[in-house]
Design goal:
Radius of gyration: 21 Å
Structural class: alpha/beta
Number of helices: 15
Mean pLDDT: 92
Order of helices and strands: HHEHEHHEEHEEHEHEHEHEHEHEHHH
Low-confidence stretches: 1-9
CATH superfamily of the largest domain: Glycogen Phosphorylase B
Shape: globular
Distance between the termini: 32 Å
Length: 416
């Protein structure tokens, strides 16, 4: 499926399996759109095959496109730790963190992109590049005689980027034929067309499908989590922008008044070298509290994460900055009330007091958790509303429909 042997083999996926969730009319529409592409091929490129929302989306989207008879290849760029340390610094800087401009960083970034461009095959009819790490692969477009659409899919928030990093990246972004953002608030003024696509979850994946209660109970027992007491859970990479330390502080505020447990479950990604350092900070702040469960899970733990979310009384996502935050949609899909920061794409998923609770601080997070724990009827209503909101807006089939329409439009434009 891709040139990187670490890309997991996709599970066997058939679009028809989603009819029970979406209805036959939606399945027929997707097949009709795919047929209009006439067998045109697609390449997706990103920076990691495991860890993080982009890899999860591609692991579902690629086999579904294949089932729609849209041949799709997924490639992952390669690079050393020095490259991924630079791209992580870029990532933080694009979210507004301080950045000391170093020409050597930009030179290495371009050198690694050029190395990957030289080794990759770009014979497909449509190219989709995900996020900043492989953005300079678009240089290949200038080498080709045949016009084909190149699309840049940005999954992060560019509303307040470091001027140094953005001024370096923007000329590359401007070489694409179209861009895709997750929120109208994320984008920048660009010379190329911009499109809004919500990221999405796969309702039939191991992370989101229904589970037997016995399996959920076995996961709690394995991690020594008490099913009889309230469970607060945040699932995310150990990343400072996810604010796991702030989650612990909010939990401690709640714990003064109400008995509860906290689960911080996550892992790392190949393109995020800071994970181990943040995990150590989290464990230090958690201290010896037996009710704080810090779980470092491997990439193949989707079923365990599913079980932890389903067992939760409340799901938390207290990010400081966020791209979209699909863990919010995961919790909502499972009918669990969610308390999350009003940052990035989270307000698209949470309508305050209707599908979840939005917060702006550690204190606000603690207050809303206490309120919900005291009001079970409100928790149930939020869970039901959240599930319906995700079904209508944030399932992977909606994202695929948007891609198919964009592919059709761009190919038509290339003819004129």
């Amino acid at each position: 499926m891709g040139s990187d042997p670490s890309i997991p083999l996709p599970r066997i996926v058939h679009l028809q399996d989603y009819a029970a969730v979406l209805g036959e009319a939606e399945i027929s529409l997707l097949r009709s759109l795919a047929a209009r592409l006439g067998g045109r091929t697609v390449k997706m490129v990103n920076s990691t095959s495991v860890g993080g929302g982009v890899a999860e989306i591609l692991n579902c989207m690629v086999p579904l496109l294949q089932d729609l008879e849209v041949p799709t290849r997924w490639d992952v760029i390669t690079g050393g730790n020095d490259f991924f340390e630079i791209t992580k610094a870029f990532h933080n800087a694009l979210h507004g963190a301080p950045y000391e401009s170093r020409p050597a960083d930009f030179e290495l970034f371009l050198a690694v992109n050029e190395m990957n461009r030289a080794r990759m095959d770009f014979s497909e009819d449509i190219i989709v590049i995900h996020d900043p790490q492989p953005v300079a692969l678009v240089h290949q477009r200038e080498q080709e005689k045949r016009k084909k659409p190149w699309i840049w899919r940005c999954h992060i928030d560019l509303s307040n980027p470091s001027p140094a990093v953005w001024s370096f990246l923007e000329p590359w972004v401007s070489k694409f034929d179209a861009t895709i953002f997750s929120s109208p608030n994320f984008s920048r003024k660009l010379s190329v067309p911009q499109n809004l696509f919500f990221p999405a979850i796969d309702p039939l994946s191991e992370k989101n499908r229904a589970l037997e209660p016995e399996y959920v109970a076995s996961v709690l027992e394995r991690f020594q989590i008490d099913p009889r007491r309230p469970i607060l859970t945040q699932v995310s990479r150990f990343d400072r922008l996810k604010d796991p330390v702030g989650v612990i502080r909010a939990y401690k505020m709640v714990k003064k008044y109400m008995d509860c447990q906290l689960v911080l479950a996550g892992g790392g990604a190949r393109d995020d070298p800071e994970g181990g350092e943040v995990l150590a900070e989290v464990r230090e702040v958690a201290g010896n509290d037996p009710d704080v469960h810090v779980l470092e899970l491997p990439p193949w733990s989707a079923l365990e994460i599913n079980a932890l979310q389903r067992a939760s009384t409340i799901v938390i996502q207290k990010s400081l900055r966020e791209g979209f935050g699909l863990t919010v949609a995961e919790g909502l899909w499972k009918k669990i009330p969610v308390v999350a920061s009003a940052v990035g794409g989270i307000p698209s998923q949470i309508i305050h007091k209707q599908t979840g609770m939005l917060v702006h601080s550690i204190e606000g997070c603690a207050f809303q958790i206490r309120y919900l724990l005291s009001n079970p009827a409100v928790m149930q209503r939020l869970g039901e509303n959240g599930h319906e909101h995700v079904k209508a807006n944030f399932l992977i089939t909606s994202s695929i429909k948007s891609y198919l329409v964009l592919f059709i439009l761009l190919l038509e434009q290339m003819k004129s």
